[in-house]
Amino acid sequence: MENSRQYFSVQDESPRLRDWNGSSKWNECFNPEMPSTSWKPAGSEGYPQNIGAAQKGLNMQWVVQLTNVAEGLLTKMYRLNQILDYPDSVSHVFSDAFWKAGVFPNHPRICVLVSKKFPEHPNKLQIERADKMALDALQNNAEVNLQSLEPWVLLLLDLMAFREQALRLILDLSSTVITLMPHQNSLILHAFMGLFCSFVRVNLFSEKIPRKMMVQMYNLLHAMLRNGRDSEFYNRLVQFIDSYDPPLKGLQEDLNFASPRIGEVLEAVGPVIFLSTDTKKLRNEGFLSPFHPRYPDILTNSAHPMRAQDLANVTSYWEWVLFGYLVCPDELLRATSIDIASVVLKENLILTLFRDEYALLHDDYQLYVLPHVIESKKMAKSGRAKQKEADLEYSVAKQVKKMLCEVHEQALISCDAIHRERRILLKQEIGRMVLFFTDQPSLLAPNIQMVFSALALAQSEVIWYFQHVGVGSSKSKSVRMVPVEIDPNDPTIGFLLDGMDRLCCLVRKYIAAIRGYALSYLSSCASRIRFLLDTPGMVALDLDVTLKGIFQQIVHHLENIPKLQGENISPITCDLSDFRKDWLSILMIVTSSRSSINIRHLEKATISTGKEGLLSEGNAAFNWSRCVNELESQLSRHGSLKKLYFYHPHLTAVFRNTMFGPEGRPQHCCAWLGVASSFPECASTLVPEELTKIGRDAVLYVESLIESLMGGLEGLINILDSEGGFGSLEIQLLPEQAAIHMNYATKASNPTKPPKVISGLPLPGHESFPENSGSIKMLEAAMQRLTNLCSVLNDMEPICVLNHVFVLREYMRECILGNFRKKLLAVLKTDNDLQRPSILESLIRRHMSIVQLAEQHISMDLTWGIREVLLTEAFSGPVSSLHFFQETTDQNTGSAVEAVCNWYVENIVKDVSGAGILFAPMHKCFRSTRPVGAYFADSVTDLRELKSFIRIFGGYGVDRLDRMMKKHTATLLNCIDTSLRLNREALKAFARSMHSGVQVGREENLKQIVDIDTVIGFCIQAGLALAFDRLLAEAAAAVLDEGAPLIFSLLARVAKHLPDEIPEEEEIRRLRVVANSVGVVGDHDSEWVRSILGEVGGANDGSWNLLPYLLAAFMTSNVWNTTAFNINIGGFNNNIHCLARCISSVIAASEFIKMERAQLQNQSLSNGHAAEVTEPEVHNLLSVEANIKSVMQLFVKCAVGVILDSWSENNRSHLVAKLIFLDQLCEFSPYLPRSTLELHVPYTVLRSIYSHYYSNSPSIPLALLSPSPRHSPALSVFHASPTFRHNRGDWTPQSGGYDSVNVKATSSRSQELIYDNDSRSQRGSDNNKHRNIRRSGPLEYSTSRKVKFVEGSTSASTGPSPLPRFAVSRSGPLLNK
Questions:
Q1: What distance in Å separates the CA atoms of residue 514 and residue 294, rounded to the nearest whole number?
Q2: Burial of 875 (0-12, 13-18, 19+ CB in 10 A)
Q3: Could you tell me the pLDDT band of residue 1341, with boundaries at 50, 70 and 90?
Q4: 3-state DSSP call for residue 1317?
Q5: What is the C-alpha to C-alpha distance for residues 491 and 662, in angstroms, rounded to an integer?
Q6: pTM, two decimal places
Q7: ∠ at Cα 1287 (1286, 1293), nearest 5°?
Q8: Residue 643: which region, alpha, beta or left (left: phi > 0; alpha: psi -120 to 50)?
Q9: 14-29 pLDDT tens trace
């Protein structure tokens, strides 16, 4: 190629153009990874630069290099096309991105003008008339614009040089190669046709870049900078572009000399093309089966000896036909060509040029082939009278014309159906092939060529499918793409991808066995070749020394192949590249017409033996040698789907439409994802940024598919976890529905006949009937799909794309756990309100059952992951803060438990919705006068619901709810401290008056105490928090005892033996807090308030000594005017009974806190002598209890005094409520015996009060049983009623399948339901324990009691109750008027 330099030696060109040289410049375009099979003859050290030089053999090195040059030129043109936003150079339509790309000057009028007027010289176009201002700007920036155009002008020069050299090489080969038949000279044939197709592709693709504008603008800019002189390349480039405008015109002229040889090749490959398109024959004759369908005993491919190799190359043959007849139209006039062309044209709509760029096939044939055929027809018609052969030519031309006119419409109608039928065939054959070779792997090696054939056909069909997405017919060259509808739901694509992937995996798995079989074949081939070389025919040929030496080297290579030792094949390494080089050297010599010994001589000399000829043996050995060293490259050539990268958006769309369709298979997702691993192989080293872009797109493709897979996985789980899924199997009749069915069944005339569905209420088991079995089948299908998908994703190997590794198991785990978290947050609330914890627990259990079903097919502990999600939703802060009972600023709480806890605090404790929340001590739950959201309060606060809450969120949820209530209660108790400080003087005056017994000024002192009602409201709310926390502790104790009985027993026993030290050590304090959180500490309320005051520093000054007086002043509040006792709940209608709980716990806690601080001060003054303070510690505990009792007695004394002072004949309605309040205080407080109250209020008064209440209640009988001496009169009456005799150990209301408190199915009487009370509950046992150690017992209201109360009496009587006498009494001041 040195002669090309003479055209480009100039003085005024830029340095880059001046240094341009065709051969040296092309080295940049060469693929650095040359094939391992070298075309270079053995022993040659260099290659002559002149290809046409006389030589004996062919030099095929230039064929390989020019093919690589073509690849580089196509890559550069493709990149330029991308930069310029795919311009339409034919119609001169350019987008805004074209002008902003920076390649051409942004002066559209001038650029388009010079392009349209090509090849007219720019100086003759009077450009200044088109756009004078743009021309001036162009002159000012001529240097910059010239530099931006220069690299692409070099590309045009490369195209021109490539054309010259490729044409010379094609001419040389077509004139010197003796034969190009596939069965004789397939290796050189493929190299020659590869160069031929590359040459056609390069020139067809060049039409897509603006060649005319590039040359014209470069020359215009060059003239501006060089005083009007044209570029030295200008004339040649204009001539080159004009001769290839359009490219097919130039190609048909240039390749006319090689047309006969091309026609011969296309005729030779015709039979294989016909076979590949005959799906019926392929199926019936078993061309793609390891055994013959009609002869099952034949398990090898001996039925069709050459079928495997031919079918593996059929995709190349199709390409040769499409390109060959397009640029050599005269060859269509051969007798057999019409059938070959018709078959191929009928199956294709496009002509692939490079990557995803294509030309409309039938448009090009109509524009450039049909005119030639018509012209030939005319010439043959005119010569029919003179020559006999002209009549045959005319007939053929007429048939060809008709075929070209009809084949386009046929292709539009039938090509999709043809390829769909072929895909179905390949799906079936590859599926059987995979099953067969999996069962019989020993037969894989003998049939490896058949495997390559199946892979090649499947590869072609898959790529064809995606290439034709959006392709239509267009007569206009200006339309780049005409979108048409294509079925994206074709499931055969997934089957083909999966079959190819599994076949490739089988080959890789048994690669050692295949190599071993190939080595055995080559070893046996050595003796056959030696025998053929010694035949008389070969001896008579008298080979020259060179050829004879190469044959001897061939035999030497084959005889030196290492022998197999046993079954261990993997360690054997054998490089047969020298053997392949030597064989190619022989082929290059014997296929050249310049050689004295050619291929025909060798065939005639060796074929007479009755066996395979020498060339056939050598070609077979060449192919098997590639299975030893180049099996991976062979597998990549036939089975790689890297070209699908350019169609990956369509790939994603088809995946989404087919994977979860009715014919989708979960196991196919492995193949869909595995395709991405080969995408980076599409990147070219000539465009460095391509690797980054393709790698990024491949990663996004995998992520998109994984997202779709995970979405499908979520969908399957959600289908099962729905009311129409597993929820339909949990349907139970509600009590009302069961009653309706029972009534109907009773009244039915035929009792044996099952009742029909009434009012839309389905009977249990209705899904078992055949007409209702669709839902069950759907569930079974969803379960099967779910388990299969999980199994496939679990077993899938990691997907590697560049430096990214995708492990599907991890994605699946995150998907399942993430979906569980979303479901948890979604079902947590219904209609913006809290879901009942019991229902939430059942939904979680249902979801977990589905997860456990999937877990059986996944090598991961998903159950542990579910627990982690629940833990995260309950607590996500540092665990160390839990160890030390500290609340740090960086401690976060899960959104789920936060929402639940906030709802309970806001709606139950605070009652922000104004639902009338009441705590019912009798039933140990909260009630509401109207629904709190979707439910009444008792349906979300009873023990069963709190147990469900704890089972869901565990101890962390309990801690969170406890902390929130503590925080709220601390704020409420702070109001007591503020009130004590604010009313200090008034309280002191009130205290003096109480101690002195002087009533003068007492009422004025009480009136000076401000905000009494406000403080009472806060204390009632604190009492509600205490009651709720007590319920929470009981539920926590029950759950802990059920789930971890040993730990619960340990805590209960340890709590009994905790040292009673004041102040307590930090470890003892923590342990006491834990024990109190599960209700095993005796006085839960006092301990709870004590911890709150200790944390906030409450009761820290002398004003707290006035606490009993402030509490006694509560008796003067106006709240008592509206207070009434409710026997149905055992409390007051405005939660005043919670005030008693608050008073008891606050007094006890404040005394503990004051004693602790006093002891700390004493310890600080004792100089650390621990022995001196050991004995007083026990005394301090007793003294603090004595102080608490003293303060409680003082409060009762002051409260009774205030009550009696405020009582009068005109104002006594509040008296009853206040006395019952004091009685309930005795009930709540372990430090206030009822004897203390009786010193001020006789028991007969209280008995009369309770008798009056219960005698007026229609639901409570008057007959009473003898109660326990630990019960108040109210509880005595309550337990005496036979209506409330408990018959079960759990006091939780049993709502059954029908929840009467749900608003949507609740009657107005639901709040009138009466709940049982379990006197043997843990709380009762704890209270009983502490009351047994009192120095004086509570009131005894039996018939044996006299009017005078004897303190400490615990006697009881079984005599008749005197209650009716008090019930009918109308005397006394106790009657509410």
A1: 27
A2: buried
A3: very low
A4: coil
A5: 9
A6: 0.76
A7: 70
A8: alpha
A9: 545 545 544 444 444 4
